[in-house]
Amino acid sequence: MQIGFVGLGRMGGNMVRRLMKAGHKCVVFDINADARKALAKDGAMDAASLDKLVEALSGEKRAVWVMLPAGAITEKTVEKLGTLLDKDDIVIDGGNSFYKDDIRRAKALAAKNIRYVDCGTSGGVWGIDRGYCMMIGGDKESVDHLDPIFATLAPGPGSIPRTPGREKLDPRAENGYIHAGPAGAGHFVKMIHNGIEYGMMQAYAEGFDILRNKDSTDLPEDERFELNITDIAEVWRRGSVISSWLLDLSAIALAKDPELAEFSGYVQDSGEGRWTVEAAIEEAVPADVLSTALFARFRSRQDHNFAEKILSAMRFGFGGHVEGAEAIDPEKKIDAHPSSVKHTRN
User: Fold this and answer.
1) Which of 237, 18, 245 is nearest to 132 (CA)?
2) Catalytic residues, which ones?
3) What is the model's pTM?
């Protein structure tokens, strides 16, 4: 199948390579000429502009996949394609756009009889080999027409055992992609996927931090352990109920350097975590873990903020507590019946 591809970055370029390896014909465009030339050497057709890309596509229901960062650049590209494509041609946004933008774009393109498909794509830089998990939104006819593309990009069932009871259900899910619903549904599902990812990552991070600080001098000497974090990460990969790809990546990083010296701990967020929390607010759904994980990322970008200065000032005011002069947890926890515990004010 022939497809146009706009955006040849870390994911986009590898997606094109995976498609071409399976025999699909790709016409590619990126403002980075070197990225285009590199894929041209692998067999893609290099288009010097969006206009040239669309001109190079043939047949009915021409399809252009946009793989660009969410925001203005995607917005302008989709708008431009809306002036170049014809009736029943298809625009696919495979980036991380906000789902409400998808709904708006789909309506705008529908007025020109151009179809719009949104595809939440997970797989990162490893997807060229592992495949890409895809959550797709759009009309059934367009999604079905693009199935050869989705089926090639998807990871397939692999070695994962079949889920009992799925024998008569949609086989696409077992192969790593689904038609989630109308325009916007694909990116909505991917948005929640990324929100969950934030929570999982934060849980791992906090757990490893607790393990790493078990030799703290604030602990009684006989309760201090020097734990091998690298080996713990590895053993958890083997049969543990918390094994996952995120844990695999953590184990790889720790094996390379247990101190993670090349990282500062500054953690960016790409937007989906915020949108997930916004969706939870709109739906009045509690999202304690996901919202806390998002706020932890904000916290990682600061040293000591003003709020913490206020906390220190209050503690000094009511108790004379001097910063840095106290143990982290100076009082040993009491293991006794609640009635025997004296309650004091902090």
Assistant:
1) 18
2) 190, 197
3) 0.88
Q: Which residue has the tokens 């507590």?
A: 321
Cβ–Cβ < 8 Å for 54, 78: no
| Sheet containing 115-122: order of strands | 45-46, 25-29, 2-6, 63-66, 90-93, 115-122, 133-137, 177-181
Q: What are the phi and psi torsion angles at 328 (to 5°)? A: -60, -45
Characterize the bridge pairing of strands 63-66 and 45-46: unpaired
Q: Residue 308's pLDDT is what?
A: 65
Reference 109, options 135, 89, 133; nearest CA is: 89
Q: Residue 326 has what pLDDT?
A: 61
- Percent of the chain past pLDDT 70, that is, above it, reads 92
Report the distance separating Cα 274 and Cα 280, nearest Å: 10
Distance CA 131, CA 125 (A): 10
How far, in Å, CA of 344 to CA of 178, rounded? 55
- Contacts of residue 65, Cβ cutoff 8 Å, sequence gap at least 6: 3, 4, 5, 6, 15, 92, 94, 119, 149
Residue bearing tokens 């734990």? 227
Contact 5, 81 (CB under 8 A): no
Q: How far apart are CA 118 and CA 30, in angstroms?
A: 20
Q: Taking a C-beta distance cutoff of 8 angstroms, is the pair 79, 112 a contact?
A: no
